[in-house]
Structure formats: structure tokens, C-alpha cells
Amino acid sequence: MNIKVVIDKKSGVCGGVKRAIKMIEKQIGLEPSRDIYVNGELLHNRLEMERLIDCGLKVEEDVDRIKDNILFIRTHGVGKETQNLARKNKNRIIDATCPKVSNSQKIIEEYYSKGYQIIIVGKYYHPEVQGLLGYCNNEGVVVSSERYIGTIDFAKKSLIIAQTTVSTERFDEMVNMISPRMKDLKIVNTICPFVEKREKELIEFAKNHSVIIFIGGTNSSNTKVMFEKFSKFNPRSYLIENRTEIDFKWFRDGDIVGVSGSASTPAWQIEEVKKVIEGHFS
């Protein structure tokens, strides 16, 4: 079978994830007397996490169990209470919070201190959202659809802000539902511009290739949002977490196969998938 495999030149991890990976690779092994921990996944990519763990990174969800070591704050960020607990336990903190998320944290903290009700458009249990709630004393309201609107106090002056990886359509939808019922509403769109730009680039990429193989973590919000967007423009789009999930029945003679990945998918995984497909048909 004659097929061609093309890598999306604009794929690869976003700036925030790339920065965090470089920081962790630089730190591992520098202080032999201290272990370096992250309280959860550094990024939503299982294979990349396994690679970093093999290099020496340790994972511990319960920060209270990390003592006299190093806490590496992941790209999603954490609340103030978590940081204070880490310091109380004599840990050194290395902060790899994505700068875009750090900006959201500052905005929430500022408006909360002024008495605003904080409304976050996103998924309640997403680690970024959990971290953002830590900047308004965990009193923020998280909304992801119309069913959660009832948790808002429409009599209060409010700030509405976005989880950085939420879709633009979802944020606009929630703003349009909420704003007509609010007398005093401050709207701050904190969706990461990288995410918005990549959505448009992926749509064009999907249109120009016979088949799309998209690589990303199954627990990644960014992956799901992007795949949902561009797959509408190419029904032969397939989402996989790693090369073992490739089904060679997806391909036909003469196909031009586009391989891409989400903002948490490193280049080595994308290259690996390309080689596996080419190797099978060579």
C-alpha cells in the first residue's frame, strides 16, 4: 500500500509545558540529598510522565507527606494553602505554573479581595481550576454548562474568568447566559491564545490530509477540546494516546496521513507514530 505520512510542523508542546519540562530536567539530580516531587501529573501525558519518573521525578498527591524535599509545582498551578503547607514541611518550592495560569491566579486574587464573586468557566475537578479556587478561599463558582447556573448569586458583583484550556465557544456561551442577569459583571477572557490559534491551525491541517492521527493524553482537557473541534472537518480523524493504539485498517492506498498532537504531546511521540506507520507499510 502506498501512503505518505506528514507531521504537522506546528505541533508539539505549548510554551508553558516546554518550560516546565526543561525546568524539571535541569533540577533532577542537582541535589542528591533531596527528592523532587510533583503533587499529581506535571502534564496530562502518561508517556512523558513515565519518562520523567524514570529520570527521577516522584509523584505524591498528598503534599503533607512531602517533607524536607522539593515540591515542583506543575503547569496547572496550585492554591496558596498547598504552597503554605509545603513550606511548613520545610520543602523548597520550584514553581513551574504556566505564566497564563499565574496571570489568572493574580486576577482572581485581586477581584476576590475587592469583594467580587468569582465565576470560573471550566471543569470543577480540573487541576488548574482547583488551583484557581485556592486564590478565592475556595469560594468561587465553577460553571461548565447551563445546569450549573443556579449556583450563582446574581445579586453580587462578579468576575467571570476562563480555565485557560476551555473552548472559546463554551466561554462565550456561559457569558451570554450570565451577563443579561448581572448588574455588575467583569468579564476577563483568560483562554490561552496558543489553544485558540492551534484550533484554527488543526482545522486547516485536517482539511488538507486524508487521515488525521492525533496524539494526546486521555485525561487532557486540551486534547479533547482540540480533537472535538477539528475532527468535524475530517471524519477520518483518530485520537490515540500512544503508538500501540494505531489500527492499520484506518488507512487506504494513496492516503496522505497527517500526524499531530495536543499542547501536552512532545515531538518524540509524534515522530514515533510517524515511524510506526511508515514502517508498517514499507
In DSSP terms (H or I, runs of 4 or more residues), the helix count works out at 9
CATH superfamily of the largest domain: 4-hydroxy-3-methylbut-2-enyl diphosphate reductase, catalytic domain
Compressed to H and E, one letter per element, the order equals EHEHEEHEHEHEEHEHEHEEH
Low confidence ranges:
none
What is the CATH T-level topology of the largest domain?
Cobalt-precorrin-4 Transmethylase, domain 1
Mean pLDDT: 93
CATH class of the largest domain: Alpha Beta
Task: Provide the spatial order of strands within the biggest beta sheet.
Answer: 1-12-10-11
Q: Look at the helices and sheets and give the structural class.
A: alpha/beta
As a whole number of angstroms, the C-alpha radius of gyration is: 21 Å
What percentage of the residues does DSSP assign to strands (E)?
Answer: 15-25%
Fraction of helical residues: 25-40%
The count of domains is 3
- State the shape: flat
CATH architecture of the largest domain: 3-Layer(aba) Sandwich
The largest β sheet comes out as: 4 strands, parallel
SS elements, strand count: 12
What is the rounded distance between the termini?
8 Å
